[in-house]
């Protein structure tokens, strides 16, 4: 690692900061429609956070009760609307954990996720949760190879389970599984039927991660014209579309998006919470900033990453160690003049720090000048250009640490008092000579 970047978000003391504190300009997108779309929920979506359900299906995940409670509280502090928990029918401990979290008195509503089965529903309604997310497979694959039931059976079962849950005064969501490989007529008929029964939400689930944003938009738009209730969406990320699909779904009229921290879940997981918030911040900054505690993202991610024994990826949305690192000289110059030139997300809004990397051969003298000002050294622009040329020459041998750069700048500055500064540049003919200074 050439320099101490803001690894995992921590602010290292030698991190150069820009002196420019002007606020970002409003986010302007020339492709955005000038006319508001009444069906779009980009400015009024809700998050159903499923780290404690979908996330438990991640290969590495095992959360004991204390860890589940810690994660639940952290997500509640971040401001997610719902927490979805593993089915209490899965195991005795899962049932007890469900009761414990439902009784924490969190602001977020608590849901648990069950199969469309009366046995599961009877156990779940006794746990104290606010609602049940009911799911059943409708794709031809699941009907043939998983539960082997036809649509008439599925519809009858759905009506029985939904009627029971509603009689207990709880929220109920009815979702199909593998919705994008299910027959459209089957889907719309069953959603129409459960909407008439008064479900709180219907759910569309891309269980295998096969859908693309255009398919999502078309299906949700069609569904929106068929049901009056809310629409929840669940997108797996097998082909990298989980965030884009969530956004397309909200534009088409979906109301709720399922997420998990760092996207953990079955296989390679679902829409990541942090990535969705980054996307939605660009969609409607005021809504996202007023509703969610964006400074909490990093801590929640670190908490979950540690719990499941993974690193936060280097290129993670918002919190990846290079998410706000600017390297190329031309970028650094523009960023120093106005951060909006190369940043759509304002790092301060997420409790993060911008970092301008300067000890490499792509550096530029404007970035080095910024460092000179931070160190309060008295160097002219010509001096800075001369040192920048030396940094590039040395960085052709190996990248320099920030300490290396600072040493060179200080040596040069000191030598100016007796006029020997040019000699400093000549004598420093290898990066290792900086380390011993
Ligand atoms: Zn899933």
Quick synopsis:
By secondary structure, this protein is of the alpha/beta class. 41% of the residues lie in helices and 11% in strands. Zinc ion binds next to loops.
Would you give an account of this structure?
The protein has 437 residues and is α/β, with parallel strands linked by helices. It has 2 domains: 38-307, TIM Barrel, CATH 3.20.20; 324-437, no CATH class. It is 41% helix and 11% strand. The strands form 2 sheets. Strands 1-2-3-4-5-6-7-8 form an 8-stranded parallel beta barrel, surrounded by 6 helices. The chain has a two-stranded parallel sheet with strand order 9-10. Helix 7 links the parallel strand 6 (201-206) and strand 7 (230-235). The radius of gyration is 27 Å and the shape is elongated. The two termini are 21 Å apart. The model is unreliable at 1-19 (pLDDT under 50). The site of zinc ion has 7 residues, from loops.
What keywords describe this structure?
437 residues; alpha/beta; TIM Barrel; 2 domains; 8-stranded parallel barrel; 17 helices; 41% helix; binds zinc ion; homocitrate synthase activity; transferase; amino-acid biosynthesis; lysine biosynthesis; magnesium
State mean pLDDT (0 to 100 scale). Answer: 90
Order of strands in the sheet with the most strands?
A: 1-2-3-4-5-6-7-8
Bound molecules: zinc ion
Q: Outline the low-pLDDT stretches.
A: 1-19
The number of distinct β-strands equals: 10
Rounded radius of gyration (Å): 27 Å
Helical fraction: 40-55%
- CATH class of the largest domain reads Alpha Beta
For the largest beta-sheet, the strand count, sense and barrel status come to: 8 strands, parallel, barrel
CATH architecture of the largest domain: Alpha-Beta Barrel
